[in-house]
Amino acid sequence: MITDPLPRSGRRRGEYDKSDALVTMPLPPAEAVQAATRALADSMQAGELAPARAAAAELVAILATFYNVAMPAVRVLGVRPHRTVAGVCTYQLFGDYTPSTQRIRVWMRTAVREQVSSPKAMLNTLLHEFCHHLDCTRLGCRESFHTRGFFTRIDHLYHHALATPPERRRPLHWTKRGSVWAIDWQRSRALRAPG
Asked: What backbone phi and psi angles, to 5 degrees, belong to 78?
């Protein structure tokens, strides 16, 4: 994961800084969100879009209700849009959020092999796009930048949804790369949460 570069203009810079500083958020009741997460994983087993779409919408509805925001439209689609060059996948889209329509789209099948993605990848994508919705509707961050705070909020919600025990969580370790920040996965995997 790589952050967006720091904007130069004042309003956009203020929004970026606000998002970057916000590393925690209230979490919904564990039982409901974790049950919906399990239902999403179960719905993907047959590889059919309709059950996955219904389960994804149910999870998002629980989150939207808890955060007191409008329910975004949720679409679960098939094979990820992608680009290949000389037989190598150089780009693929896991999901997106459109602020003007408040619509989340996630793709359930991998780009090249067209296999059903892992439930954890689908969950992470769905939560990522929902956090864009939260930024735009609740936090007043119209641009919804990819900041360290943005990714950290997703990480908290993701592990909450999966019921990851605190002792098994690993903090995200960031390293500066030019004008952006990137997660140092080697260090993040090596570090254990305090406890």
From this structure: -80, -110
Residue segments in the chain with a per-residue pLDDT below the cut of 50: 193, 195
Tell me the one-letter amino acid at 104. I
Strands 174-177 and 180-183, bridge-based pairing: antiparallel
Read off the pTM.
Answer: 0.94
pLDDT by residue (tens digit) across 85-102? 988 888 999 999 999 999
Tell me how far apart the alpha carbons of residues 117 and 47 are, in angstroms, rounded to a whole number.
9
Instruction: Sort 107 into a burial class: Cβ within 10 Å, 0-12 / 13-18 / 19+.
Output: buried
Q: CA 32 to CA 186: how far, in whole Å? A: 33
| Rounded Cα distance, 130 and 71, in Å | 10
